[in-house]
Write a structure and sequence with these properties.
Blueprint (H helix, E strand, L loop, with lengths): L1 H32 L5 H31 L17 E9 L2 E9 L6 E5 L8 H7 L8 E6 L17 H19 L4 E6 L1 H12 L4 E7 L5 H19 L2 H10 L9 H17 L11 H5 L6 H18 L8 H4 L7 E6 L7 H10 L5 E6 L6 H4 L1 H12 L7
Parallel strand pairs: 3-4, 3-5, 5-6, 6-7, 7-8
Antiparallel strand pairs: 1-2, 2-4
Length: 401
């Protein structure tokens, strides 16, 4: 947080100095035209320019310093000691020719590997998972991946070049790196929201690489989901007499949306549904702690800016590519066990679609675990139960510790 405050103070100082430079330069030009220049005017202009240069240099140095010193905190036990075989790394990798970042955290690096696939596309949950699911680090090496176009990996590829296949290829490359580094035949997957669909794509194409998958806030059919979300938001707004929201929804029309403005239009109903869940007393610990997460040690100042840019720009580019997908049709048979962790009160990823998918899915193991006090984020809303259920599902495999 100190970094953010310093950045904004230096930015404000730079803007003020720039304004002063512009005004003084204009005044000097006018004075020269009128042949009324004097030495004091030039001295003030030089001081303002010097202040501007100093603010820019200091801000650039601050950004570079925070990027270089970003890290994930060490694993420590109750006595403040670091376990001998623990791992806590923030690492840059080249996946598919693209530089990307992962965090690796665990009390014992010999434990099975669990790769967490964040929501989005364009979202980063590297810090959020560390805060909310620290207990999993006792049982697994927990890996978080900032996917291309998100957080620390925002610049991994040009936004215009991102495709769904980019994520599948890079996710598989990351999996192969993890298998080789930790000497594991297979790894475990947990996917959240968009990450739940990415998890399905990975186990569908590369079943030999994965023990099992847990999809939470499972996405199933993207166009149908958007239309159901829109209708639900309209229903809630009408019931509350929220005429302004009804008007905005009606003006945007029924999704799917395309092109510039997609994120803004989708946010009209998605943010409304998130607020509805946050106000639901049956949902425990609702919502993200965004300020805590974005202020975490894993992100330098540039990463913090890209934290927001990824949500806005990457989502707008990639999400329309998902519209043709319906997992009930496209991934109805999988060779890996799949479990769905579903919030009973999730109005973002419709639970009826998850139930439909679970019915038609042909897999060596499958099931739905209901979280009665959760919305779209059971891993946050009921984190203790979430950890218990992860251990229960994954313990069915002999590789589980």
């Amino acid at each position: 947080m100190v970094q953010i405050v310093a950045f904004f103070l230096l930015t404000a100082l730079g803007i003020a100095a720039l304004a002063a430079v512009c005004l003084l330069a204009l005044a000097r030009i006018c004075a020269q035209i009128g042949r009324r220049t004097h030495q004091g005017q030039l001295a003030r202009l030089k001081r303002a320019a010097g202040l501007l240069a100093a603010a820019v240099i200091c801000n650039a140095a601050l950004i570079a310093l925070t990027q270089l010193t970003a890290s994930t905190p060490p694993i420590v036990d109750e006595g403040g000691n670091t376990p001998e075989n623990s791992i806590a790394e923030l690492t840059a990798l080249t996946l598919g020719g693209r530089k990307q970042w992962i965090s690796l955290r665990g009390w014992d690096r010999r434990k099975p590997v669990l790769l967490f696939l964040a929501g989005g596309p364009g979202g980063t949950q590297m810090a959020a998972v560390r805060h909310e699911l620290a207990e999993l680090e006792r049982h697994f090496v927990v890996v978080n991946w900032d996917q291309p176009g998100s957080g620390k990996s925002y610049a991994a590829a040009k936004t215009a070049e991102l495709t769904v296949d980019t994520y599948i290829q890079d996710g598989h490359a990351l999996t192969e790196y993890l298998r080789a580094r930790f000497g594991q035949e297979k790894i475990y997957l947990v996917g959240e929201s968009w990450g739940s669909a990415l998890g399905i794509f990975l186990v569908d194409r590369y079943p030999e690489s994965y023990h099992a998958l847990i999809g939470t806030a499972q996405m199933v059919a993207f166009v149908e989901t958007e239309q159901m979300d829109y209708a639900k938001a309209m229903e809630i707004a009408a019931a509350k007499g929220d005429a302004a929201r009804v008007k905005r929804l009606a003006a945007n029309g029924m999704p799917p949306y395309y092109g510039r403005g997609l994120t803004r239009k989708s946010a009209v109903y998605l943010n409304y549904l998130s607020a509805h869940m946050a106000g639901n007393p049956d949902i425990h610990n609702p919502g993200y702690n965004t300020l805590r997460d974005i202020g975490s040690a894993e992100y330098g100042l540039l990463d913090k800016i890209n934290y927001v840019r990824g949500v806005l720009r990457t989502y707008e580019r990639v999400y329309p590519q998902l519209y043709p997908i319906d997992l009930r049709r496209d991934c109805a048979k999988l060779d890996v066990p799949v479990y769905f962790f579903v919030g009973r009160h999730d109005v973002n990823a419709p639970t009826a679609l998850v139930e439909d998918y679970a019915q038609v899915l042909d897999a060596p193991g499958k099931g739905i675990v209901w979280f009665e006090h959760s919305g779209h984020s059971p891993w946050i809303n009921e984190r203790e139960k979430f950890v218990q259920e992860v251990l229960a599902c994954f313990s069915e495999d002999p590789a589980q510790p």
